[in-house]
């Protein structure tokens, strides 16, 4: 990662004046710089010419802001409305890709006709078919034992939050004081590796993830979904995410899709970036407008 050019996929409302852009958010025209206009035209051209679109969306930090606790990260009514419109579009399939458990994400995204990739790819529900990674399943009982041990180890840190997601564990330290975070993470690592040194510990945005020792992730799960489907040569994949766990998906789709990172960083495999959740929403609205216009003028 890093050192690779990536470009702002969409202008924020306070973008500097430049070449006039289309009315993209129903609140008046944006003014894009020539480079911004060229980039968005390239994205919209790919969307417009695609015979079908697979849209993969991360949840936390992508379609809803990251909150102090996972339970607080619920969808805004406007986002629910936008997702409902996306799902109804012909030739477009929406799949949520998340580190949350399947039960958790399905409580938060209450739609039918939508796919789910949960637990960083270990648990998939697509087109009514459920798949659970067989090797990862063998570690469920072990992770449950570790959960109990970690609860004891973390008693000196009452503001930490431990989450049992069946296939993985999440150790949230967002609310632990900055002065205590280094010690907290050291205790977590020591406890985990003394319990079973084979377990994999990864770090996200103020969260540690404990995973089974299986070479798997969001990218592999997305590719399995795509390989199981019949696609025309003009099909298009689009993936929007904000976390380090989305990078393997950006990588596998680099040559065949549109990848967008939420947050401006050079350390990403994504082609483009948007600044925040609000700009993700603008992208989704623009997809709706493009595809609705296309359907009205080229009905199938």
Properties at a glance:
4-stranded antiparallel β-sheet; Rossmann fold; disordered N terminus; 9-stranded mixed β-sheet; alpha/beta; 20% strand; Alpha-Beta Plaits; 9 helices; 300 residues
Report on this model:
It is built from 9 helices and 15 strands. It is of the alpha/beta class and 300 residues long. It folds into 2 domains: 7-133 and 216-297, 3-Layer(aba) Sandwich (Rossmann fold), CATH 3.40.50; 136-211, Alpha-Beta Plaits. The strands form 3 sheets. Strands 1-15-14-13-4-5-6-7-8 form a 9-stranded mixed beta sheet, with helices on both faces. It has a 4-stranded antiparallel beta sheet with strand order 9-10-12-11, with helices on one face. The protein has a two-stranded antiparallel ribbon with strand order 2-3. Helix 2 (77-88) packs parallel to helix 9 (277-297) and helix 5 (140-153) crosses helix 6. The protein is globular. Residues 1-5 and 11-31 have low confidence and may be disordered.
Write the layout of secondary structure elements.
Elements: E1 7-8, E2 19-20, E3 31-32, H1 34-49, E4 53-57, H2 77-88, E5 92-97, H3 102-108, E6 115-118, E7 123-126, E8 129-132, H4 134-137, H5 140-153, E9 161-164, E10 169-172, H6 178-195, E11 200-203, E12 207-211, H7 218-227, E13 236-241, H8 247-252, E14 257-262, E15 272-274, H9 277-297
Parallel strand pairs: 1-15, 4-5, 4-13, 5-6, 13-14, 14-15
Antiparallel strand pairs: 2-3, 6-7, 7-8, 9-10, 10-12, 11-12
Helix pairs in contact: 2-9, 5-6
């Amino acid at each position: 990662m890093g050192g690779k050019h990536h470009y702002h996929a969409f202008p924020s409302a306070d973008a500097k004046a430049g070449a006039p852009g289309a009315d993209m958010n129903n609140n008046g025209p944006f003014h894009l710089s020539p480079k911004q206009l060229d980039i968005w035209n390239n994205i919209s051209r790919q969307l417009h010419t695609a015979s079908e679109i697979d849209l993969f969306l991360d949840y936390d930090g992508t379609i809803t802001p990251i909150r102090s606790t996972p339970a607080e990260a619920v969808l805004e009514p406007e986002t629910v409305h936008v997702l409902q419109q996306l799902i109804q579009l012909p030739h477009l399939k929406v799949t949520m890709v998340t580190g949350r458990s399947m039960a958790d994400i399905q409580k938060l995204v209450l739609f039918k006709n939508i796919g789910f990739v949960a637990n960083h790819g270990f648990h998939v529900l697509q087109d009514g078919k459920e798949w659970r990674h067989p090797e990862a399943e063998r570690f469920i009982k072990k992770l449950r034992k570790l959960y109990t041990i970690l609860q004891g180890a973390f008693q000196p840190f009452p503001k930490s939050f431990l989450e049992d997601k069946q296939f993985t564990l999440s150790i949230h330290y967002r609310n632990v004081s900055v002065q205590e975070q280094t010690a907290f993470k050291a205790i977590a690592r020591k406890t985990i590796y003394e319990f079973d040194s084979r377990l994999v510990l990864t770090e996200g945005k103020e969260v540690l993830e404990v995973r089974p020792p299986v070479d798997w992730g969001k990218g592999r799960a997305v590719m399995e979904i795509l390989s199981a489907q019949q696609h025309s040569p003009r099909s298009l994949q689009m993936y929007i995410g904000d976390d380090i766990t989305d990078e393997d998906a950006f990588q596998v789709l680099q040559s065949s899709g549109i990848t967008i990172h939420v947050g401006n960083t050079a350390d990403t495999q994504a082609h483009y970036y948007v600044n925040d959740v609000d700009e993700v929403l603008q992208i989704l609205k623009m997809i709706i407008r493009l595809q609705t216009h296309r359907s009205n003028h080229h009905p199938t």
